[in-house]
Design brief:
Strand content: 15-25%
CATH superfamily: Malate/L-lactate/L-sulpholactate dehydrogenase, NADPH binding domain
CATH class: Alpha Beta
Shape: globular
Strand order of the largest sheet: 2-3-4-11-5-6-7
Number of domains: 1
Mean pLDDT: 97
CATH architecture: 2-Layer Sandwich
Number of strands: 13
Oligomer: single chain
Structural class: alpha+beta
CATH topology: Ribosomal Protein S8, Chain: A, domain 1
Helix content: 25-40%
Length: 351
């Protein structure tokens, strides 16, 4: 049986490792918080699974553990930042805070960040602002990496280009976290390292043939992840990928044409105050009705009821806060390597 870990102990362990690696206290706190939140919500390829790569990026200088971002442009409801490759969770949380302050004054606020480090699971940022009555959008790309070919092409050009929305209701928020590709690089890498194939033909080999082999994206010449919609409707994922590129690299003025070779992210955060458009209760009534109609929909399989995005993740989180965090079997062995390296105490198991 896989052990479960006390959430506060996991947070303390992750923060201490970040501090030992050279992050400032606020960066370490934000990285630990966001990565742990990813696992709480069940995004186990984009939670603490990323901690060792983040620490390695600090060592190599690809990620800076402390320093300041640079404001490049600003108007009352928008800002553009150079993140200077500071930790992505730290920058993204700052962007949400700044955009929320804008939204309280002007109804909406948008912050574009270029040269951020990797920002982990987008879903990890959604719950807090959505519960406070703000509709939040986060989109992200990495101009240093190419894994997804344009629809109809064979040569990788985009990253999965994830996008997320936190939508308030009078109860739990709707939390959407999807990508413009059929699967992620993190999941592909996990399958590749385990020598496993996928259930579906979510990948294309270098000739553009669909396959269930995630290893094709690591070959030379590389294959690619299929855009969302696959061979039949991949033009839709392709369109979403272009939208994300425009919101991130376009607004940030820095991207693929610049020959970027540092693992990281371009990010765009937009926050909307729903009360700026009228009554908060009116918004809630509309969204509550939609949620109710979705979950009441007659399911195809009676054993699998319809649920709205975020419902399962929030249920995971509630259970794990009570009973301990169940990490994917590959995560703790990697963490123990850095725990041993930095000579700190590991997280406590829950009996």
């Amino acid at each position: 049986m896989q052990p479960r870990y006390d959430v506060d102990s996991l947070l303390d362990c992750a923060k201490t490792l970040c501090l030992k690696a050279g992050m400032s206290d606020d960066c370490a706190h934000n990285v630990a918080t966001v990565l742990t939140e990813g696992d709480l919500l069940g995004h186990d390829t984009h939670g603490l699974n990323l901690l060792k790569p983040y620490l390695n990026a600090i060592k190599s200088g690809a990620m800076l553990g402390h320093g300041n971002l640079k404001e490049l442009a600003a108007r009352p409801a928008v800002a553009s930042w150079d993140g200077n490759y500071l930790p992505g969770p730290h920058l993204t949380l700052q962007a949400i805070e700044t955009a929320t302050s804008m939204a309280k004054k002007y109804g909406t606020g948008t912050v574009a960040i270029r040269r951020s480090s990797h920002i982990a699971a987008l879903a990890a940022y959604l719950e807090k602002p959505a519960r406070e009555g703000f509709l939040v959008q986060i989109v992200c790309s990495d101009p240093s990496v190419a894994n997804v070919a344009p629809f109809g092409g064979t040569e990788p050009l985009f990253t999965p280009n994830p996008m997320a929305w936190g939508i308030p209701t009078s109860h739990d928020p709707i939390m959407i976290d999807i990508s413009a590709s059929t699967t992620t690089v993190g999941m592909s890498s996990r399958l590749h390292q385990a020598g496993e194939t996928g259930i579906h033909n979510w990948w294309l080999d270098a000739e553009g043939n669909p396959c269930n082999n995630p290893s094709v994206i690591f070959e030379n010449p590389p294959g690619s992840l299929q855009p969302l919609g696959g061979l039949d409707a991949g033009h839709k994922g392709f369109g979403l990928a272009l939208f994300v590129e425009a919101m991130t690299s376009g607004l940030g003025g820095h991207g693929r044409m610049d020959g970027v070779d540092t693992w990281g992210a371009n990010v765009s955060v937009q926050v909307t105050d729903i009360e700026a458009f009228g009554s908060k209760q009116s918004f809630y009534k509309q969204m509550d009705h939609l949620v109710e109609q979705c979950v009441k929909s007659r399911p195809v399989n009676d054993d699998i009821p319809v649920r709205v995005p975020g419902q399962r993740g929030l249920a995971y989180k509630k259970d794990q806060l009570k009973n301990g965090v169940l990490l994917h079997k590959d995560i703790m062995p990697a963490l123990r390597e850095v725990i041993t390296e930095y000579r700190i105490e590991g997280p406590k198991e829950v009996s």
